[in-house]
Design goal:
Radius of gyration: 51 Å
Strand order of the largest sheet: 9-11-10-14-12-13
Distance between the termini: 136 Å
Number of strands: 14
Largest sheet: 6 strands, mixed
CATH topology of one domain: Nucleotidyltransferase, domain 5
Subcellular location: Cytoplasm, Cytoskeleton
Keywords: Coiled coil, Cytoplasm, Cytoskeleton
GO molecular function: ubiquitin binding
Order of helices and strands: HHHHHEEEEEHEHHEEHEHEEHEEE
Oligomer: single chain
Structural class: alpha+beta
Strand content: 15-25%
CATH class of one domain: Alpha Beta
Protein name: UBX domain-containing protein 11
InterPro entries: NSFL1C_SEP_dom_sf, SEP_domain, Ubiquitin-like_domsf, UBX_dom
Shape: elongated
CATH architecture of one domain: 2-Layer Sandwich
Helix content: 25-40%
Length: 470
């Protein structure tokens, strides 16, 4: 009976020989150390090869190390064998499929492809029916975009679907904006939003009918204006989404949060006009500030200040009606949290806007002109000669009171200050008299009204004198 022994490769033989040599040297060195510690007359028995016998403990450790090495090798070989078996099985299946396809007749291939095409068509029909139930239509992908995607290649010259293409990041418009459809749908939406319907609003005196104010939408060739907002180009996705909502018969989704019940839209049709942004033009002259100083730096772009009549006829941003107080308050938040404190915004502004305005007091100061006029009217025999009289309005520093003074052309600024001091409250702070335009301080008491340019009418302003010593 022959026993088939496993064939050991050359590498494993060399490894085993190396391990034997190393272990033999280790055993020899250990035995030499033990022999030095023992008695001199005691000799160890030697083997036929001349090496001392190993102890049982050292032999067991050597066998354990060799056994662990063999187990690790066996595990690696098993894993490699399993991976090779899987690869062989996969290749056998591929070969079987290829042989089957080669053995099939052309009629069978056509029948298989026809069956697959029919199944795909049924799936497409079911998906279209599903979209139609929700009022949607499958539009598909434009051919131009598909060609561009096919032309997209990587650096190696082959098509790479994972490579990002910038031009494909911008979605192409799937629908064309039709202003005719938008105008017709807005008319229907206005009926649903209550156009022409009056609501009863309670007032202090009773009640009144109030109509809903429509929001303005201006249509241009390249964009729109909505409410009081800026110009919105058709290339903006938010603008197209708003117009698509109207084309599909829905109220714009961006206005639903502000007007949950809808609002009528007033359409201004300028579809044949292309809106262009007008550059802002600065004042070309030298300005004067409120504190009396001058800005000597001339403004730039003076050539843009003069515009021809043709440029003025060009349509720009339409004039939108100003928001009413109720509309402005409705847009404000209820409260704002700042530094951990809740601040009531809407209530405070509502009380400020709806509070009755403070009445302004008009004080007519009686001067010598009024007295002479009364005297001349009482004496009819005396010839009436109308003197040169200037009507001067003086606004107090707080703006609550306005003084109306009639003075002669030859009266001075000192006379004006005397009239004002007699009608101002006692212990009032010192003040300065300023002319509005041009803005200058009238501090010369001997200057006449005519010399100061306050004839025939003028408006003056009082201002607290910060340089005065109280």
């Amino acid at each position: 009976m022959k026993v088939n022994l496993p064939i050991i490769p050359d590498e494993e033989k060399e490894t085993n020989n190396l391990i034997d040599d190393v272990t033999a040297d280790m055993l020899k060195s250990l035995l030499d150390k033990e022999s030095r510690r023992s008695l001199p007359n005691v000799n160890f028995p030697s083997t036929s090869t001349g090496s001392p016998l190993c102890s049982e403990k050292e032999l067991l450790s050597l066998m354990a190390s060799r056994l662990s090495t063999a187990e690790a090798r066996l595990k690696l070989q098993k894993e490699e064998l399993m991976s090779k078996e899987k690869r062989i099985l996969y290749l056998e299946r591929k070969v079987h499929q290829l042989e089957k396809q080669c053995n099939e007749s052309p009629d069978e291939v056509v029948a298989s492809l026809t069956h697959q095409c029919d199944s795909f068509q049924n799936q497409i029909r079911e998906m279209e029916d599903f979209l139609y139930d929700y009022g949607l239509i499958w539009v598909g992908e434009a051919r131009g975009r598909r060609k561009r995607s096919l032309r997209r290649k990587s650096s190696t010259g082959t098509y790479d679907p994972c490579l990002w293409s910038p031009e494909e990041s911008i979605p192409e418009p799937s629908l064309k904006v039709d202003y005719d459809v938008i105008i017709e749908n807005i008319k229907e939406l206005n009926l649903l939003a209550g156009e022409g319907v009056a609501n009863v609003e309670s007032t202090k005196d009773g009640a009144r009918l109030k109509y809903t104010e429509p929001a303005t939408m201006t249509l241009y060739k390249n964009g729109i204006f909505l409410l009081n907002g800026p110009f919105r180009s058709l290339s903006d996705p938010a603008t197209r989404r708003c117009l698509y909502d109207i084309m599909e018969g829905y109220f714009p989704s961006e206005l639903q949060s502000t007007y949950p019940e809808g609002i009528p839209l007033k359409v201004i049709d300028n579809r044949n006009i292309e809106y262009t942004m007008q550059p802002s033009s600065a004042f070309p002259g030298i300005g004067q500030l409120l504190n009396g100083t001058k800005n000597d730096t001339p403004c730039l772009h003076t050539h843009r200040t003069l515009r021809s009549a043709s440029s003025l006829q060009h349509m720009t941003q339409p004039h939108e009606p100003r928001l009413s107080a109720d509309q402005f308050i409705r847009k404000l938040p209820g409260c704002v949290i700042k530094d951990g404190n809740s601040i009531e915004v809407k209530k405070s502004i509502e009380s400020l806007l709806k509070s009755p305005p403070k009445p302004r007091q008009l004080t007519i100061i009686e001067t010598l002109v009024e007295k002479e006029k009364c005297t001349m009217s009482q004496s009819p025999t005396q010839a009436h000669v109308e003197p040169d009289v200037a009507n001067i309005r003086v606004k107090s520093e707080t703006g609550d009171c306005t003084y109306l003074i009639k003075m002669k052309y030859l009266d001075t600024i000192g006379d004006l200050r005397v009239y004002l001091d007699t009608h101002r409250p006692a212990f009032s702070p010192s003040y300065k008299i300023l002319s509005t335009f041009p803005r200058r301080v009238l501090d010369d008491p001997d200057a006449t009204i005519e010399e100061c340019g306050l004839v025939p009418t003028a408006t003056l302003v009082l201002e607290l004198d910060s340089t005065a010593n109280y």
